[in-house]
Hints:
Radius of gyration of chain A: 26 Å
Largest interface: A-B, 106 and 108 residues
Helix content of chain A: over 70%
Largest sheet of chain A: 2 strands, antiparallel
Helix content of chain B: over 70%
Strand content of chain B: under 5%
Number of strands of chain B: 0
Shape of chain B: globular
Largest sheet of chain B: none
Number of helices of chain B: 12
Structural class of chain A: mainly alpha
Mean pLDDT of chain B: 82
Shape of chain A: globular
Number of helices of chain A: 15
Number of strands of chain A: 2
Distance between the termini of chain A: 46 Å
Radius of gyration of chain B: 25 Å
Low-confidence stretches of chain B: 1-10, 281-289
Oligomer: heterodimer
Strand order of the largest sheet of chain A: 1-2
Order of helices and strands of chain B: HHHHHHHHHHHH
Amino acid sequence: MSDYAAHRQSGLPVFVRRVLHGGGFWPALPAIVFLVIFLVLPMVTLLAFGFVTIERGRIVGETLTLQHLQSALQDTLIWRLTWRSFYVAVISTVLSLILAYPVAYLFSQTKGIWRMLILVAVISPLLTSALVRAYAWLVILGGRRGLLNQTLLNLGLIDQPLRLLNTDWAVIIGMTQIHLPFMFLPLLAVLSGRDRRLEEASRNLGAGQVRTFFSVVVPMSIPAIFAGLALVFAVSYTNFIVPQLLGGGSYATLAVQVYEQTVVVLDWTRGAVLATILLSSCFVFVYLIVAAGSRFSRWTERTS
Amino acid sequence: MTTVRSSPSTPGPAPSARLVDGIGMAAFVLITGFSLLLLVAPSLIVIAVSFEPRAYISFPPSGFSLKWYQSVFENRQLMDSVQVSLTVSFWVALLCLALGVPAAFASVRGTFPAKSGLNAFLLAPQMMPGMVIGIATLFFGAYVAFRASNTMLILALSVFCLPFVIRITMARLADLDPRLDEASANLGAGKIETFVRVTLPQLGPALLAAAAFTFIEAFDNVTVALFTSDVRGRPLPVELYYLVQNDSTPAIAAISSIEIGLSFLVMLVLARTVGLERLGSPSIKPDKT
């Protein structure tokens, strides 16, 4: 800053000058305070509620107890639900990668109106409510009148309507479609900005398109792939709307159980314990994905 | 520059590679087509179904009628919830801008120890599932004797949406040329004058985009709202959630179509201001500064 400008501000008190200078963390202070009060303290409360006994809306007893956590961890139902949350999320995440990657690649290869149309197709689900999209799948998969069953019956491919709704696959398909943009966006950024001379070099050296794709393009995008995997896994693992609507009344995952305990059964202690299990297991899985990603990208750097 | 290609007599890959390429190409076209269909078809089907004249869903619709749209607009409860949602979203967008924009300034322009720690903290809410934020706020509210209400919903949604505003603003700020600010200072403008006349106009589109994005996220959100919203003045997503669970009239398709239209409007705003492609770029490098 010039001496002249510095001189012009020297009339102000030191504190105000420091705030205005923009070099400090002062502008972030309101946001920090806000997050401490409305994120950190609530999270602490959530954790704490899992370790106290609540009866008729009152905290009973003075001491913290591990009893609720223990009884939840010994409950086989909870383990079954966690396992279902896990495999549904894994299948859905892998499917998203398989479906999103070619589209992101196509996007990076096209120009003009097509590029724009692909982008609109991918972003628009992001801006439409998950509820609306889940409803769309209800219409498509639902019962005898479901669109897919009607079509298949009319085409004569099946005699009996298939049971599509209220299955694992209904949940997986719905989740995959709803979370596809989260996979697509990191891929898009990396694939669009990539160095294309490497592919030319690969082609000039005699490699085919498929080989060039798998040994040049895909390794370049490893960090974006794992960023997408981590994100999609996290949102799929913790989604309770889709399993509830597409899985039906008797279908439950860990996230659904958290919702039921908190809102329907009103057993807040149980809800808090399950929410803690959900969140911490989610963090562990996401951490493993991120760690695998950095391992893998180092590995591709060394071999290529 | 003409000697780059080593063997000009045999351009392209070997025949076996060509076969692989053919199969690969077919798989690529198939998956891409399916994927794009999967993305677009559900929305189009919902819009088509909303014009159904009969009382139950069928596809293609048996005729064309706007009666379900009319029923939506005549439904007092739904219209009230739309109003609640609009109000809530407005305050969430305002609060997020007020908190997020200065925070983004500190994150990008600031020089102080533990800056990466600050960035991680500011973007921490995006690691949290909406449900966890909702439940945590509900429990905290109960603990300090503050009941579920739309004020609580606004606060919880602001926590949820704050990272969006910070990320969009940070991305734009990092792109700005700091020399323009220096030039302004050299010409004798104070910090405030520089901010208002130089920095803010450059940030304008990004702020509009951040506001639009936050508004639509708050308007659509159901995972936070289910836990924190008022029992009487329910916002639209919660109202819709109960409707979808119990009913499948084409009226829901009509509401959904309106929401799809609204999201296209927001997309237009985003495309015109920051560009749609940029939405993804900060997500891989949240702390690119």
